[in-house]
Write a structure and sequence with these properties.
Subcellular location: Cell inner membrane; Cell membrane
Protein name: High-affinity zinc uptake system membrane protein ZnuB
Mean pLDDT: 88
CATH superfamily: ABC transporter involved in vitamin B12 uptake, BtuC
Helix content: over 70%
CATH class: Mainly Alpha
Number of helices: 11
Shape: globular
Low-confidence stretches: none
CATH architecture: Orthogonal Bundle
Function: Involved in the high-affinity zinc uptake transport system.
Order of helices and strands: HHHHHHHHHHH
Structural class: mainly alpha
Membrane topology: Multi-pass membrane protein
GO cellular component, one term: ATP-binding cassette (ABC) transporter complex
Length: 261
């Protein structure tokens, strides 16, 4: 059992390691809908990757990064409200993906595995992709942690202090795009945002500082991976949804913990 589940555990831990910090920023900045938009875009990346016959991992990353950059561009122009832009981009990206799939008569695509994930099919190459993305994101977070926190707490004050808030907003969105692209294939496009939000929301109840919240969120994500894979092994449930359900149970239990003052 250990030999069979070890690659899945390692993949889950790698995703949890970056979902914790980025999920915390998503919760702080109230960007949950942005994560859903990128999840829709990941399906477009998958479809275009198959249609153009390029590496699917590369197609997922490029598509998520392109959509994040496009959103920042629209926000800067201030044409319509952000939630309206997100709604337009989310459903447009999904529609492009579905139209692209209609041209793939010669390719059999298991959409269920991409919609709900297939954590039990992780290969050595997948682990390299996950931990490469995790290393890049964690390295950027370590370098730019203070300005990212400052621009998250108060963008206007950070701008007065000379921090380029637009750059850090773009950087954060690009990193979230990488997390979505890395986790989508293994957790699922429909629920990857949940793995970003739920552990961070649970950690917020317990943590005293932003740094504590990031670490606790990653730990909660790792515990949810262990419990979810155990459920999947013993009761033959889908691995990705089982992980998210485990995280949701931990979130409910965290609400029973007295609020720290």
């Amino acid at each position: 059992m250990i030999d069979f589940l070890l690659p899945s555990l390692l993949a889950g831990f790698g995703i949890a390691a970056i979902a914790g910090p980025l999920g915390s920023f998503v919760v702080w900045r109230k960007m949950a809908y942005f994560g859903d938009t990128l999840a829709h875009a990941s399906l477009m990346g998958l479809s275009l990757g198959l249609l153009l016959d390029i590496n699917l991992n590369l197609a997922l990353v490029l598509c998520c990064l392109a959509l994040a950059a496009l959103l920042v561009t629209f926000q800067r122009q201030n044409v319509v409200a952000t939630d309206t832009i997100l709604g337009i981009l989310a459903h447009s990206a999904l529609s492009v993906g579905l139209v692209a799939l209609s041209f793939l008569d010669h390719v059999r695509v298991d959409l269920m595995s991409y919609l709900f994930g297939d954590l039990l099919s992780v290969s050595a190459n997948d682990l390299v992709f996950i931990y490469g993305g995790a290393a890049a994101v964690l390295g950027l977070l370590a370098i730019f942690w203070r300005p990212l926190i400052s621009s998250t707490v108060n963008e206007e004050l950070a701008s007065v202090e000379g921090i380029n808030t637009e750059f850090y907003r773009l950087l954060l969105m690009l990193m979230i795009g990488v997390v979505i692209a890395v986790g989508m294939k293994f957790v699922g496009a429909l629920i990857i945002t949940s793995l970003l939000i739920i552990p961070a929301a649970a950690a917020r109840r317990i943590a005293k500082t932003p740094e504590q919240m990031v670490v606790i969120a990653s730990c909660i994500g790792a515990v949810a991976v262990c419990i979810g894979l155990a459920l999947s092994w013993h009761w033959d449930t889908p691995a990705g949804p089982s992980v998210v359900l485990s995280a949701a149970i931990i979130f409910v239990l965290a609400q029973l913990v007295p609020q720290r003052q």
